[in-house]
Design goal:
alpha/beta, three-stranded mixed sheet, 14 helices, 17 strands, 27% helix
């Protein structure tokens, strides 16, 4: 797949990011970032990760394709865009991910006070992902900023459901993070991890769900919206949970997007079953995000702790499952990375598998953290990321991997996968 070059004027027309105005008000369009070029641009990071690998056949194979003409791949999924360096769920982050060859981009979907759908990872993350606390809208936050004092960390909570769509569109995206030791709003907003960057912070263009659809169409990529769990009681202003789930898919239909271009996701299995039962055209690509590791007693190495079982999920009509990376991997007696019992069971049941999320852990020298917890003893350098991708692709058989820096997954897909479509 290659991208079509679109002009700034077209992008501006489709994706101005303007505030809501009356019919008589002039619409001021801010000049948008240039759209993605026709060729994929990976930058130096994936090459550095290959260089960091231990010597062996995989490293040699990946080095051998360094001069390839790289193309976009559906195996490469932009997790919130490219949030390793760009504010997540912003126009700038999405375009960066498309430039790096992500064939599928993600909009996490939540809603505003006037029940409009927008792209945010959580309904209540505006205080860590935008500049809301330094604007007049801070007065509308569910919980105002409270400075750190007497051993109690600084806190705030600002939700999309606290404000209208027009108000949401006045905000700017920043890198996700907060400083718990802060005594001022300015200090609180300075919480970016040291392996990320603030070079593009507080300038990110926030997106409605509909705007993300138009942007993704213009970039020639597929779409994977995630229906986020509401932080408010449902129904909300008359909108039930099933209304919310249907509204998300209806916006693709209204935009003329074919169902085979969309991979709707939810951690709530009832949402997925609702799509399967009431939106059958989307059923084949409806993704059950498996977060059952948070449930007491769940053990990915013990099928007796999984409820429902893999076979039961298939019988319910679920065809795609997406767990975190660590649930799909294990170590054998020689400390080699291999598919987990969970991965084997999913394959035996006939489920397609998507993994999340690569490039979200920072440097891997000390075990890799949460996303690598099942293989910690084998994680000693950033080069292990390519080895993990290889096991996921070749042995587990995943059809795609979410990444905070899609150039890495694009590089691997171009080198090692004959078919780059999910």
């Amino acid at each position: 797949m290659r991208f079509s070059l679109i002009s700034c004027s077209l992008a501006a027309l489709l994706l101005s990011g303007c505030n809501s105005s009356s019919d008589s008000d002039p619409v001021v369009v801010e000049q948008p970032q240039t759209a993605t070029p026709a060729s994929v641009q990976l930058g130096p990071r994936p090459f550095a990760l290959v260089d960091a690998m231990a010597a062996g056949p995989l490293k040699e194979a990946l080095q051998a394709c360094a001069d390839n003409n790289f193309v976009a791949s559906d195996f490469s999924i932009g997790h919130r865009g490219a949030p390793m360096q760009f504010p997540e769920h912003t126009r700038e982050s999405y375009i960066a991910a498309a430039r790096m060859g992500a064939g599928i981009l993600e909009c996490d979907v939540t809603f505003t006070a006037d029940s409009e759908l927008v792209c945010r990872h959580s309904q209540c993350d505006l205080h860590t992902t935008t500049n809301i606390l330094e604007t007049e809208l801070a007065s509308k936050c569910s919980e105002p900023f409270t400075p750190a004092a007497d051993g109690v960390p600084a806190s705030a909570q600002c939700c999309t459901s606290d404000i209208t769509l027009a108000e949401f569109k006045t905000l700017k995206g920043k890198m996700d993070g907060a400083n718990p030791a802060a005594t001022t709003v300015s200090e609180y907003m300075q919480g970016t991890a040291p392996w990320r960057t603030d070079l593009y912070a507080a300038r990110g263009t926030l997106m409605t769900h509909q705007e993300s659809i138009e942007l993704f169409k213009s970039l020639g990529v597929k779409m994977t919206p995630e229906l986020k769990s509401p932080s408010v009681s449902m129904p909300f202003n008359g909108m039930s949970q099933t209304d919310y789930a249907s509204k998300m898919l209806n916006e693709y239909e209204l935009a003329g997007v074919a169902a085979d271009q969309v991979w709707p996701q939810s951690f709530n299995r009832d949402d997925v079953l609702h799509w399967v039962n009431t939106h059958p055209e989307f059923a084949a690509q409806a993704v059950y995000l498996d977060g059952r590791d948070a449930e007491p007693g769940f053990d990915p190495s013990n099928a007796q702790t999984w409820s429902p079982s893999m076979a039961e999920l298939v019988n319910q009509g679920i065809e795609v499952i997406a767990p975190p990376i660590w649930m799909l991997l294990d170590l054998d007696n020689n400390n080699q990375i291999v598919p987990s019992a969970y991965a084997q069971a999913a394959n035996e049941a006939g489920l397609k598998i998507i993994a999340w999320s690569l490039e979200r852990s920072g440097p891997l020298e000390s075990g890799g953290g949460w996303y690598y917890q099942s293989i910690t003893d084998a994680v000693d350098s950033d080069g292990v990321m390519m080895q993990v991708l290889d096991v996921l692709a070749q042995d587990v058989g995943v059809i795609g991997v979410f990444s905070d820096w899609p150039a890495t997954t694009t590089y691997y897909a171009n080198c090692k996968l004959a078919n780059n479509d999910a």
